[in-house]
Amino acid sequence: MLQLEGLKVDLGAFVLRADLSVAPGTRAAVVGPSGAGKSTLLSVVAGFLAPAEGRVLWDGRDLSGQEPGKRPLSIVFQDNNLFPHLSVADNVGLGLSPSLRLSKDDRARVAQSLERVGLHGMERRRPAELSGGQLSRVALARVLLRSRPLMLLDEPFAALGPAMRGEMLELVQDVAAETGATVLMVTHDPRDARRLGGQTILVAEGVARPPVATEALFADPPAVLRDYLGPD
Amino acid sequence: MTSRLTRSVAKEDIMRLPVMTAGLLALAAPAMAQDQPVLRVLTYDSFVTDWGPGPQIEEAFEATCGCDLQLVGAGDGAALLARAKLEGERSEADVILGLDTNLTADAAETGLFAPHGIDPSGLDLPIAWDDPLFVPYDWGYFAFVHDTALEDVPGSLAELAESDVSVIIQDPRTSTPGLGLLMWAEAVFGAESEAWWQAMADNILTVTKGWSEAYGLFLDGEADMVLSYTTSPAYHLISEDDPTKAAAAFSEGHYLQVEVAGKLAASDQPELADDFLEFMLSDAFQSIIPTTNWMYPAKVPEEGLPEGFDTLIEPEDALLYPAEEADEAREDALAKWLAALAR
Amino acid sequence: MAGRIGPVARVAGGAAAVLVAALTLGTLVAVAMRAEDAPQLGPADFAAIRFTMLQATLSALFSVALAIPVARALARRSFPGRGLLVTLLGAPFILPVIVAVLGLLAVFGRNGLISQGLMLLGFEPVHIYGLHGVVLAHVFFNLPLATRLILQGWLAIPAERFRLAASLGLSPRDVARTLEWPMLRAVLPGAALVIFLICTTSFAVALALGGGPRGTTVELAIYQAFRFEFDLGSAALLSLIQFAICATAALAVWWVDLPAGFGGGLGRVTERWAISGPGLRALDALAIGLAALFLLTPLAMIVAEGIPRLADLPASVISATGRSFAVALSAAVLTIVLALSLATLALGTRGWKTGAVEALAVLSIAVSPLVIGTGLFLVIYPFADPISLALPITALVNALMSLPFAYRALAPALAEAETVHGRLADSLGMRGWARLKHLILPRLMRPLGFAAGLAAALSMGDLGVIALFANPEQATLPMEMYGLMASFRMEQASSAALLLLVCSMGLFWVFDRGGRVRAAT
């Protein structure tokens, strides 16, 4: 279980507070107005930003001071998820060994995970030779291979078309199901939140609210969310 | 070794460092792993190049001494004394070869040199020699060298300054011929030398760091004359069969350069050093000098001078300051030189 | 959390900083401590200081001013052979000084091409010796560098801006005012500073072409103090003054960033509109043509004079070439290690510390090689035989001389790699060697290739420090070339010069090209 305990992030111009917990296996969308601090929230969980106060706990264990790479999580950014100078296989292989010392067995697992995300036989390609959707698939293949219990997605599919986004969300759900991971996904689009199912964390007015059931939230949105969503 | 989050470096990566270090150290040539005693002679670079006297002399001396003769270049001639001073008494060198008479007083003053104990009679120098610390091995007259096609070749320093002839000289601060010309002017003009340098200002095309640059520019046709030695045309005649280079004979006389060697007092091979100084005046050494260093041998070998040397001009008056006077005159002469030409 | 660097990186960076400081300022202190008398500066020294600043300022201004039209023309014109031309135009900068001077004189000397042409027409030959000759030579050396820096600035203007300007119907003059002038204002001071620093320590050029003691630079005054007077105190003081001149110049342009990205790709051409008028085309053709003529003719003369005796170069020249390669490659490796360590350290520090690291990296060029060499000699002498260490020491000091360029090429690229990919690497736990190997080095291939090539080429032609530690059995190619000259063998020396030119250019080309090819993605 992920717990954010009395968290306060101070970025000078703005402050974000959070006091919430996310149950294991939850798929939670993180929604809210631009600049409200959705990505900041993920950065704190991932370990890129240190909170001014409070703690991030995983299964009751304090993660403070732990390096991003050591935390029990995988993160997918909006872009720059792949090193352009490495092959697809190496980019995925980094999930097994950060120094890329891969055994034959490891290589086979990389190929398997690529096949699993629909990129069979593309091991040798460079990122520049792939489409936007394929880039996302490679990143997800690595998440699959790392098999960490928490998956953070920071608007990973924002640049994809609606149909492709749908496919990717399905893939995310599959990966999460396979690894049993808890998912936090930042998104702008309420449809994405709905498609993900599960719960939603609303980030607005300097506070990340505890997750509530997505359908219920959108059925009766609070004022800030209504303003953000605009008239239907 | 360099990244934002370097918390640990794998063991095998650390292993790479010694390999690199070893590679660098391998560049440092050992060159002294022999049982024979080593005699180290510090000299100027051009003495030890393949085309200088060095290789032949090393071979000849090693044939008799049962030692390893190491000739070590220390830059150009002007750098030699500074190098000896830098090394001081801890110097590994046993002999310093290549100082000239403009520097011997200064060198003697350091107290680094020991008497040579060699009888100076029988030397073929244009002057008498009685220096207890330094033994001459070759000598030459400074002279302005020109192409024989040059018309109206000046016949004296004074005429040169009056003429339109362009010359390239060397900087006295960085080169021994440059310093030689400084003393030449001083010996000829004395108190009037500054005026002569002023008159020379429009003749001097440029002043180079060393002899090589000056001579190279001259051969490229940049100037009519270059400051060099009366013996320089012998190279062109003997090695290149080219009779078109000549040295101009000047009526005031020519300043002499006597190149000497001295034994360092702190040498750990004093006897070998003595042997080397003796060897220096032998035919074996002296016969190598004329066609490698292109200077006159300090003691003409039995077979005489090589053919071609007889064509060289022979100045009637050899000018040379005694060592102490040269040392005293040096700084004053440089100040005048700077004042006359810096305008 | 930028600014976090690991302990190994911190130690490496700290060690590099200490080493550079010890080599630059430490050697100066070693020389000063050995001095017996208090330093005395005379009028001649002040004249040297004035001349140094005058020639360096003029050289910097002319180099930069002349580079602007050339860079602009190269930025907006594409033509066959452009890539080759850009590479060749870089040649003078990596040329050994004496080779370049001989090449220049073959064109501008009294017996050079121009003078011969003039005399055929009944005019007086050109007189190159004097302040103008020194400036001419420095422009020859540094015009390529200035062009490269400014071209970099031009190519850094996003193509979209030019598209926007075209869509708004801006004339070339308007484009110059709104887009190009602001870029130049940012780039020019830094470019001028770099060239000023290089010219300040000039010695051989100033002496050969200065026409006499009028052309005495501070570096030559340092030589005089050493050689003629053996006055180590004055030598140290003059060296300090030289350093102070450079530091003052650096402070004077502190408010602008020093030019970055020496190593960036210059292969592309910015797509431009409204520049196809015959007047502008002619202007650009003229700029490129004149620059090529000015820079390439002396090179051609070196080649022409070197070819005849190339086949009968003595065997010792060949072994010296091998030694020079070893020194050059070691210098390249050392340069990269130092520059990368310092750049990493700078990335991990803030405020004045970052400034100190950058200053250290850039100002290492301002210290007299003679003082560094002598200081090292004094420091090493009690412990080891400096002569047996001649080649490693030469490699080390050469690395120091190339450090400013390598640092300026690598630091921005390193910062960018960390900005763009640092989080991903963090999230995957890539640290230490793994991060260096799989993130930093691959992302920095281009500037690494450039920096290594530059360091190797500059080291190949250097004669500065090796002369002090010289050992004939370990002669390098430049020493060998001097040896040939000193033995009257000027024609063979010309061939050795050509060999040196080919080796320097070859090393630069191989590294630079290698970096670019491997950075293809």
TrEMBL record, chain A:
Keyword Cytoplasm: no
PROSITE patterns noted in UniProt: ABC_TRANSPORTER_1, ABC_TRANSPORTER_2
Presence of the UniProt keyword Transmembrane in the record: no
Annotated signal sequence range: none
ABC transporter domain: residues covered: 2-230
GO molecular function: ATP binding; ATP hydrolysis activity
Key words of the record: ATP-binding, Cell inner membrane, Cell membrane, Membrane, Nucleotide-binding, Translocase, Transport
Pfam families, A to Z: ABC_tran (PF00005)
Gene3D superfamilies: P-loop containing nucleotide triphosphate hydrolases
Highest taxon, organism lineage: Bacteria
PANTHER family cross-referenced by the UniProt entry: SPERMIDINE/PUTRESCINE IMPORT ATP-BINDING PROTEIN POTA, THIAMINE IMPORT ATP-BINDING PROTEIN THIQ
Protein name stated in the entry: ATP-binding cassette domain-containing protein
Naturally occurring in which organism (per UniProt): Psychromarinibacter sediminicola
TrEMBL record, chain C:
Entry superkingdom: Bacteria
Bilayer-spanning residue ranges: 12-33, 53-71, 83-108, 128-151, 186-212, 232-256, 282-304, 324-347, 359-381, 387-407, 448-470, 490-511
Membrane-topology descriptor: Multi-pass membrane protein
Single GO BP term: transmembrane transport
Limits of the ABC transmembrane type-1 domain: 49-253, 321-511
GO CC annotations on file: plasma membrane
Classification via InterPro entries: MetI-like, MetI-like_sf
Compartment(s) where it occurs, according to its Swiss-Prot or TrEMBL record: Cell inner membrane
Alphabetical UniProt keywords: Cell inner membrane, Cell membrane, Membrane, Transmembrane, Transmembrane helix, Transport
Main location: membrane
Record keyword RNA-binding present: no
Protein name per its UniProtKB record: Thiamine/thiamine pyrophosphate ABC transporter permease ThiP
Organism: Psychromarinibacter sediminicola
Lineage: Bacteria, Pseudomonadati, Pseudomonadota, Alphaproteobacteria, Rhodobacterales
